[in-house]
Amino acid sequence: MDGCDELDSLARFHTRSCHSHGQHYRGGASRKKATPLRLGSFAPRVRAEQRAETKMSPSPSSSSSSSIILTALAVVTLTTLFFFSSPASAAGPQPRPFKKIYAFGDSFTDTGNTRSASGPSGFGHVSNPPYGVTFFHRPTNRYSDGRLVIDFVAQSLSLPFLPPYRSISSSSSSSSSTAAYGVNFAVAGSTAINHEFFVRNNMSLDITPQSILTQLIWFNKYLESHEGCKAATRGGACRDSLEDALVWVGEIGVNDYAYTVGSAVSGDTIRKLAINTVAAFLESLLRRGVKYMVVQGLPVSGCLPLAMYLSPEDDRDDIGCVKSVNDQTRAHNAALLAKISDLRKRFPDSMILYADYWNAYHSVMKNPAKYSFKEPFKACCGAGEPYHFSPIATCGTPTADLCPRPSEYVNWDGVHLTEAMYKVIADMFLKGRFSHPPFSYLLSKKRRGG
Questions:
Q1: Which of 117, 229, 365, 438 has an alpha carbon 20 to 30 Å from 130's alpha carbon atom?
Q2: End-to-end Cα distance, the chain
Q3: CATH number of this structure's domain 3-31+95-358
Q4: pLDDT, tens digit, for every residue of 389-443?
Q5: Catalytic positions, please?
Q6: Where are the domains of the chain?
């Protein structure tokens, strides 16, 4: 049995158990450790109107002037007619390169699969203001003041925002109609490693039970109920339904490292298990017929206010972030990229793009002013010094306060980012040099039908 088949078997076996667990997240975030922290935890329409009204007495000079004016008007009129009848103007808007997006990941990508009552308890107020204040002007259960990277991806492809899977499964009419353009399966607090691992190692307290395996189960259910593609199918209906879909795998794995802080489980063990699980997950998607896939690496998690708050001050790197954490996520990304390279060889007909979250985020932290950020380390929404973050006064609670200009902050609530930062990261992925190969190449290949 290969990795993909094993993951499929687990998915079928755990379908019920994953849905029966309660929602949890780790507690004890306020503990300070004396040792280095190991946390992995966005042609104008031209209208020409001319009028010529001439009331002149006839004379040779006025007749000559009138002829010149009439000739000029004729040239302008013919040019205007040619412009509006040209093939370029008649072509209309370009067709969408993708008809839908399927997204996976954790709270950096979740557009509403968790709420205050069901999300990670450490950030259990996502349904409260001021979440969503910048763009939606109300909480939408996104862990930010506005849009996430996946929202900017959808907008760049002329697609609507992705509805969360749980709203589709609950038969919301508005969400069901939007689902024609894709679905978001990402869950805040989700892990790469199966939840049972944390239970066996006594690390299940306050942990969200959903993993990337849960998201695979949801994806299989959705394909079967909405696309007529059964989980066991290889090709056929699956390939037809996924031919025009972009699969976006947001970062997944930060929570795996975070949940092991203070335990006897090593970072190396987490990295090996998480990478193998994610690789099997990606292979499962590719075997189902996914042809265009973007996989994000982990960010520089050591730059998050939570990591800074928990770590000793002598554990810092050249940009002022937690060195042990950033070293950990960089090693994780190197292992992930090696797996992606292997999958590219085994699935040459599919395009797998790596979105380099670590170096994109790192570039912003090296020179925040270049991207119009004035505060790279403090949370915009929170309380306390020196990072405007406290685990007992997180964003959305009565004791937390809001910064006056979120667009000047990199971080939103101590872990998650502001809409402004997500927009910068999204542009780096979609238009910049932090996707390999470039996203523009993926689009051109899709338009050519390759």
A1: 365
A2: 31
A3: 3.40.50
A4: 999 999 999 999 999 999 999 999 999 999 999 999 999 999 999 999 999 999 9
A5: 107, 413, 416
A6: 3-31+95-358
